[in-house]
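ok so for the tutorial part 2 we go from a plain amino acid sequence to predicted structure tokens. step 1 is just haveing the sequence, like this:
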Amino acid sequence: TVLVPLLVGLDPSTALFTAGIGTLLFHLVTKGKVPIFLGSSFAFIAPIIKATELYGLAGTLSGMVGVAMVYFVMSALVKWQGIRLIERLFPPVVIGPVIILIGLSLAGTGVNMAKGLLKLIPIFCGIIVGYIAALIFYDVDMSGVRNAAWLGFPQFVFPQFSWEPILFMMPVAIAPVIEHIGDVYVVNTVTGKDYVKDPGLHRTLLGDGLAC
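step 2 — the prediction. this is what the tokens look like for a chain of 212 residues:
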């Protein structure tokens, strides 16, 4: 949830805030039955970066309306035709490779960031040990900590609605929809329940769409 906004140039605190709101909306729609937290999807990294180059951040955010529309349409189709429609459109042979591809496309980023983290660990340890030693043996000025605000507001950017970014982002929603279906089946396996039937895949898709 924090890594994705960092990679695409968004404010992580805004991502955390909106993820919380989106999760609450999801649980409202699914009647609190599905144990899922809605975080940032890695499938959107490349499209958001490209859309921001073409339309700016405000335009890209309006493009998420198109993503939500795709989720709404899929939810309506599943409610109308049932899960058989999803099984025909996105069988396991399609869902599996898409999720694997998302993971593989991010492998290089993960490896590079892990190497960077290992290099930083000794620095972090030195900071912690030095700070503790300073607190014990010296007078440390804590005025900055005492005066810091307990609460801060996310840096919101309002969408600038335009059809171009909406049409650009709509096809991108197919991969997250497949990712969503795979996630629901995984949660089914972990919990031993069938959330595809109760509360229904149409509700989980609708909740995810509202979160967008």
